[in-house]
Amino acid sequence: MKPIDEQHIAEPGLVVLDITGGDEDTVRAVMAALEERWATSGIGPGRRDPGEPGVRAQVYADVLRPGREST
After folding, report:
1. Which helix (H) or strand (E) holds 28?
2. How many angstroms separate the CA atoms of 68 and 71, rounded?
3. What would the pLDDT profile of 11-55 be if each residue is shown by its tens digit?
4. What pairs with residue 56 in β-bridges?
5. Most buried residue among 36, 45, 60, 71 by CB atoms closer than 10 A?
6. Over 70: is that where the pLDDT of 64 sits?
7. Half-sphere exposure of residue 41, counting CA atoms within 13 Å on the CB side?
8. Amino acid 69: pLDDT
9. What is the rounded distance in angstroms from the CA atom of residue 24 to the CA atom of residue 17?
10. Which burial class, exposed, middle or buried, applies to 12 when counting CB atoms under 10 A from its CB (0-12, 13-18, 19+)?
């Protein structure tokens, strides 16, 4: 994953979320739910780390701005 430093989240309301789930479908479902609530960097690919269980993904979110409305 990309390194995170203070410049990435220098404004109030900006967060970086590291998500780990048992499979890629679960991780994508979590990213989709976050996208509905807040403005996010979107649903990205999950990745597996050799020797580590589960699938990981990273999402950038602005918790001060609403996300997309569900249909």
Report:
1. helix 24-37
2. 9
3. 778 888 899 999 999 999 999 999 999 999 988 889 999 999 999
4. 20, 47
5. 60
6. yes
7. 14
8. 66
9. 16
10. exposed
Between CA 58 and CA 46 the distance in angstroms is: 8
pTM of the full structure? 0.74
Calpha distance 21→25 (Å, rounded) = 9
Residue 71 has pLDDT above 60, yes or no: no
Structure tokens at 31: 């990213």
**Token code pair at residue 38:** 């807040």
Count of alpha carbons within 13 angstroms of residue 4, beta-carbon side: 11
Separation of alpha carbons 30 and 14, rounded Å: 18
Per-residue model confidence (pLDDT) at position 68: 77
- Cα–Cα distances in Å, from 17 out to 39, 57, 69? 13, 8, 21
